[in-house]
Design goal:
Elements (H helix, E strand, L loop, with lengths): L2 H13 L2 H8 L3 H15 L4 E4 L2 E4 L1 H26 L7 E8 L4 H8 L9 E8 L1 H9 L5 E4 L12 E14 L1 H7 L11 E5 L4 H12 L5 E6 L2 H9 L5 E4 L3 H8 L2 E17 L7 H14 L14
Parallel strand pairs: 3-4, 3-5, 7-8
Antiparallel strand pairs: 1-2, 5-10, 6-9, 6-10
Helix pairs in contact: 1-2, 1-3, 1-4
Length: 309
């Protein structure tokens, strides 16, 4: 098989036309059309058919595209594995993107195992919107993206979700709010000032649904994309805020606040997204194993707390 023909076919199929593919590949449209014609002749089937002014995949074309995605994904894994393979006397660089909705403490706890490998590692962190980070991942400018949601269905990126784990959320209040809103949980949330996660975030949607299901109507005083900002506003007594239950004691100790209660039904999920279907990068392996066995998998010893379903 001529893999150059396969590559041209793949680009036309993914980009939706010969002209777009020619711009991406810096090759004349006539060259791409000729290469695809040669590829169809070699396979003995038509891969595209006219659909108005555009090209549409035939049934055979869709089948070939599935194989092409797998072939080029494995090729990308090969390049990454060779490029990042630890060599004696050389520093391993690990480039990780963190979606801005992921709590900073969770991100630090997840990334930390990568710094504890036998070989020296230089960690480069980037924080951005998830869709932007996935674009960087597709261009192999990142080795991993840590997110609070899997790859969105409307984002066309050849990458794979590796679920790290999940936990519920706890509700925290500064001392100034405890006398007024420290009563029975979760009833104490009704009418209370609250710093909410962004409405479009995964945890923000689940939290709003949970409050509605329990007929609770807190007074939203702020809405934050950045969980660190929400935590700071809550620490200063602006309103009640939420955080991952697995970090409950850390949040209390670091911010001088107290947990009012918790619910497992507002679930925060965390994913490692990589171009590897089968994880081989040593830093990604360390992160996924530690997250599943320790951060989210361990039975955490906690003092009894009020929990709402």
């Amino acid at each position: 098989m001529n893999y150059k023909h396969l590559h041209y076919f793949f680009q036309v199929a993914k980009l939706g036309g010969v002209l777009r593919a020619s711009e991406r590949l810096h090759v004349a449209p006539q060259t791409i059309s000729g290469q695809i014609q040669s590829f169809e002749d070699a396979l003995g089937v038509a891969l595209f058919e006219k659909s108005g002014r555009n090209l549409a995949l035939t049934d055979a074309g869709r089948m070939v595209l599935g194989y092409a995605e797998a072939i080029f994904s494995i090729g990308a894994e090969l390049e990454e594995a060779v490029r990042e393979h630890p060599r004696r006397g050389k520093l391993l660089e690990f480039r990780v993107g963190v979606a801005d909705a992921v709590p900073k403490t969770i991100a630090c706890r997840l990334i930390e195992p990568a710094s504890q490998l036998p070989e020296p590692v230089r960690i480069v962190c980037r924080e951005w919107k998830l869709d932007m980070l996935l674009g960087e991942l597709a261009l192999h400018r990142l080795d991993l993206v840590i997110a609070d949601a899997p790859i969105p269905s409307d984002v066309s990126v050849s990458a794979f979700n590796h679920r790290l784990g999940s936990c519920g959320v706890s509700f925290f209040a500064a001392p100034a709010l405890l006398d007024t809103y420290g009563g029975r949980f979760p009833a104490c949330l009704d009418g209370a000032p609250m710093v909410m996660p962004a409405q479009e975030s995964a945890v923000g949607k689940r939290l709003r649904n949970w409050l509605q299901a329990h007929a609770l109507h807190p007074r939203v005083v702020a809405e934050c994309d950045d969980s660190a900002l929400a935590k700071e506003l809550g620490r200063r007594g602006l309103g009640i805020f939420v955080g991952p239950t697995v970090l409950e004691r850390d949040i209390e100790k670091q911010n001088g606040v107290r947990a009012l209660g918790a619910t497992p039904d507002v679930e925060e999920e965390f994913f490692a997204i990589s171009v590897e279907r089968r994880i081989t990068h040593p830093c990604v392996t360390a992160i996924t194993e530690a997250a599943r066995k320790e951060l989210f998998g361990a039975s955490l010893r906690r003092r009894p707390r009020r929990t709402a379903a």
